[in-house]
Design brief:
With 286 residues, the protein is of the alpha/beta class. The protein has helices spanning 26-36, 64-77, 91-102, 126-136, 147-156, 171-180, 225-238, 243-259, 275-278, and strands at residues 12-19, 40-51, 56-61, 82-85, 109-111, 142-143, 185-188, 197-204, 208-216. Helix 1 crosses helix 7 (225-238) and helix 2 runs parallel beside helix 3 (91-102). The chain starts with 11 loop residues before the first strand and ends in an 8-residue tail after the last helix.
């Protein structure tokens, strides 16, 4: 009998996320990003959404026992190199995910704290935010909030002295309070901060600020930029890159995907995660 020669496995990343039928954000964004960066993605659906490039109309959380069954079945079958968590859908799902990743403490966990849509549609209530802070953040390798998400997370813990909602707290202090909750790293993204260039800052537990990267601010707004960045970090860590290198490379990939983005509907632009495959080949007589 002829046997096929063994083929090296690509890095395998398991994503917990909601389904986005527009394929701009959520699980579909994760699958495309991880695939574009050479990984084999596994998908655990946490919620079903009705949404387009304009906003989210409704959300239906998947039952926690179904979320657990999806993940456990995959983990018993294939070797996973990293976890990525996006929108969990419910506090029960957060608890289940926390229990699952706790069984694999050696694997990196990247958490994108999706709390609202780009339009501002609320996607997480106070109970879910509390569950995120108490159960997932203590086991998180890299948390990737934007400034609005960082302030809301810190506010939920009572970790602010001014501003009512925590909005007066400097972002560096926000990052430190999130590190105090147990995150090993916090990558604070600056798309919502009024600066000429977008400044993303990486903080490390016990160290503080370790790198700051500035990117040209692109016109328009993008559906799924945070999902793309977090998934790109997960892909790079699963491929064996060190944290600083993984974060730097993920930012570069994400900026290029955004710069190549397209506007298929009436709302936000969608990043082109496969921009490299769509670049026009250079002809010999060019």
């Amino acid at each position: 009998m002829n046997h096929r020669p063994a083929t090296p496995l690509p890095p395998i990343v398991l994503s917990f996320a909601a389904s986005d039928p527009s394929s701009g954000a959520g699980m579909q964004a994760d699958l495309m990003t991880l695939s574009a960066l050479g990984c084999h993605p596994l998908s655990v659906i946490t919620a079903l959404t009705v949404q387009d490039t304009v906003g989210v109309g409704s959300l239906l959380a998947v039952a926690a026992d179904c979320v657990e069954a999806q993940a456990r079945t995959l983990l018993e079958d294939m070797p996973v190199a990293a976890f990525k968590v996006g929108l969990a859908g419910s506090v029960e799902n957060i608890a289940v995910i926390a229990g699952i990743v706790a069984d694999y403490p050696a694997l990196p966990l990247i958490v994108d704290p999706v709390l609202a849509s780009g339009r501002g549609d609320k996607l997480a209530d106070d109970e879910m935010i509390a569950g995120l802070c108490e159960l997932l953040l203590p086991v998180t390798t890299i948390l990737t909030p934007n400034s609005l998400e960082a302030h809301r997370l810190v506010s939920a813990t009572g970790g602010y002295d001014a501003g009512g909602d925590g909005s007066e707290l400097p972002l560096g202090d926000c990052a430190q309070k999130l590190l105090d909750l147990g995150c090993r790293h916090v990558l604070l993204t600056g798309t919502h901060v009024n600066t000429e260039r977008v400044i993303n800052a990486l903080y490390r537990q016990g160290v503080g600020l370790v790198r700051s990267d500035a990117w040209d601010r692109l016109p328009g707004s993008y559906h799924g930029s945070g999902c793309t960045l977090a998934s790109a970090i997960a892909a790079n860590l699963a491929s064996g890159r060190a944290v600083d290198d993984a974060v730097a490379a993920a930012q570069d990939y994400t900026w290029r995907a955004l710069a190549s983005g397209f506007r298929p509907g009436m709302g936000q632009f969608i990043p082109d995660r496969f921009f490299a495959t769509r670049q026009r080949p250079r002809l010999l007589d060019d």
